[in-house]
From TrEMBL:
It is found in: Membrane. It is a multi-pass membrane protein. The chain crosses the membrane at residues 12-32, 113-139, 145-165, 177-198, 204-223, 261-282, 311-329, 341-360, 366-387, 394-415, 435-454. Its main location: membrane. PROSITE patterns: MFS. Residues 463-484 are annotated as: Disordered. One of its GO terms (biological process) is monoatomic anion transport. One of its GO terms (cellular component) is membrane. GO terms for molecular function: symporter activity. This is Major facilitator superfamily (MFS) profile domain-containing protein. Residues 21-459 form the Major facilitator superfamily (MFS) profile domain.
Length: 484
């Protein structure tokens, strides 16, 4: 049974605590993270000609859209393969910085890694319309560099959580990462409105300006450890320093125990399950607007709203399941291992069944939207499952583990766009999309099975290789230690 532990005290002062401010900034940061990413998935519908529009040249063509406002927009004659290449090239850069980003955050801190990466990504987004005007190669390059910047952000947050968030509150903290889905849910309809009234360029300008504003606020209010924060109360600092093991110098310079890490089945369970789950997620993220437009035949006004529904559902499920998982662990009703396996099996396995249903009923507008929304909603429960599992088994190297997992998932994100492009190029029909849904179902099932079989919530001995000695009597006790 899991060791019980009191939750984080909420009212040190009459103001927000530094932990609460951190939660808010991380939530907003991940909302922005996906806003900077998914703006293209909705904008590309209006950036290019669809199958019913005629283009006789490969050069930029100006066209008056069918919107009532008669906004004159620049459209590009990119074919299906080019569009999927543009959607997928983000992952070329994204995959390069996952592992380095996690390790760098362990060494120099997440404040700089997460903050500067987001700031540079916001500036790149501001320049995206200009890059498209220069040529297809330029916008591809800008998306690759955007991925390079944002790839470092996700693994960077786990080392910060290991210094600020008590063990029994970490599932709920990890739900802030799923605010990326909330960001997409909000960004999709807003961008749809902006595009309809001001042109597709406005989608990039809007998200970029918000990104720069957030970056300034991040550096003003967030610090890597309680000891470094200049405005934290003594009460809050003392509490956090007591309940969370802290490095004496506040920096993670501990060498990575590669042998123990690479031979650990629990680590590989996280890596493969994360890859399978995100493969399915990214396929929907990148392809849903195009599917709605080409197969379900909704226009841009409805596209943004309908595309946002799965993201909203995912965040709400992430928040609810994380609160439930923390309560089950804190009360001792479930061990950490049991909780992680239960929620992962549900969050990754159930979407597999829904993808099979999508293959049979995906041609119906109502059923299709309902199934997509349900699948991604349920997938939000990964925050209570494998997503923060690295903090359970090895908090000192949680950034490295997440970086490894997200590297594989990033390759899957690129592979998903390549797969859809190859399967639908010149034959964008419901029958071809059925193949896509069957592949997604198999991937989801494999991910759930691997974690339920090999996953764990117990602290690994190689997490503190320098302190695991027989003669050590004051060995650090993890907050999430489980007792029989």
């Amino acid at each position: 049974m899991a060791k019980t532990e009191k939750s984080f005290p909420r009212n040190f002062t009459g103001c927000l605590t530094c932990v609460q401010v951190l939660n808010i900034m991380v939530l907003l940061g991940f909302m922005l993270n996906y806003a900077l990413r998914v703006n293209l998935t909705i904008a590309i519908v209006e950036m290019t000609y669809n199958q019913t529009q005629i283009a006789d040249t490969n050069q930029t063509i100006h066209n008056v859209t069918e919107h009532p406002e008669h906004i004159e927009q620049t459209r590009y004659n990119w074919n299906t393969k080019q569009k999927n290449l543009l959607l997928g090239c983000f992952f070329w850069g994204y995959v390069l910085t996952e592992l380095p980003g996690g390790r760098l955050a362990e060494i120099v801190g997440a404040r700089r890694v997460f903050g500067y990466s987001t700031l540079i990504a916001s500036i790149l987004t501001l320049l995206t319309p200009g890059a498209a005007a220069l040529g297809f190669g330029w916008i591809v390059a800008s998306r690759v560099f955007l991925g390079f910047c944002l790839g470092a952000t996700w693994p960077a947050i786990l080392p910060m959580a290991s210094k600020w968030i008590p063990a029994m509150d970490r599932s709920k903290f990890m739900s802030n990462m799923m605010a990326s889905s909330l960001g997409a849910a909000i960004t999709m309809p807003i961008c749809g409105f902006l595009i309809a009234h001001f042109g597709w360029e406005s989608a990039f300008y809007f998200t970029a300006i918000i990104g720069v504003m957030w970056s300034v606020a991040w550096f003003a209010v967030v610090y890597d450890t309680p000891a470094q924060h200049p405005r934290i109360s003594e009460t809050e600092r003392n509490y956090l320093m007591k309940v969370i093991p802290q490095d004496s110098n506040g920096k993670g310079h501990m060498p990575i125990p590669w042998r123990g890490l690479l031979l650990c089945p629990a680590v590989w369970a996280i890596i493969f399950t994360h890859g399978a789950s995100v493969f399915g997620y990214f396929t929907v993220v990148n392809q849903l607007p195009s599917y709605i437009e080409s197969i379900l035949h909704y226009d841009i006004h409805h596209n943004g709203l309908l595309s946002s529904l799965p993201y909203l559902g995912k965040y709400l499920c992430a928040l609810a399941s994380s609160v439930l998982a923390d309560w089950l662990r804190r009360s001792g009703k479930l061990s950490t291992t049991a909780a992680r396996k239960l929620f992962t099996g549900f969050a990754v396995g159930m979407p597999g069944f829904l993808m099979i249903a999508q293959a049979y009923m995906g041609g119906d507008r109502v059923w299709s939207i309902a199934i997509f929304t349900s699948a991604l909603t349920i997938n939000g429960a990964v925050t209570a499952g494998y997503l923060g599992n690295g903090l359970d088994i090895a908090p000192n190297f949680s950034g490295t583990i997440f970086g490894m997992a997200n590297t594989l998932s990033s390759l899957g994100g690129w592979l998903s766009t390549f797969m859809v492009g190859e399967l639908t190029h010149g034959n964008n029909t419901p029958e071809q999309w059925k193949i896509v849904f069957y592949i997604l179902a198999g991937t989801y099932f494999a991910g759930a099975l691997i974690f339920v079989t090999f996953g764990s919530g117990e602290l690994q001995p190689w997490n503190s290789p320098n302190s695991v000695r027989k003669d050590e009597k004051h060995e650090e006790q993890p907050l999430n230690e489980e007792k029989a």
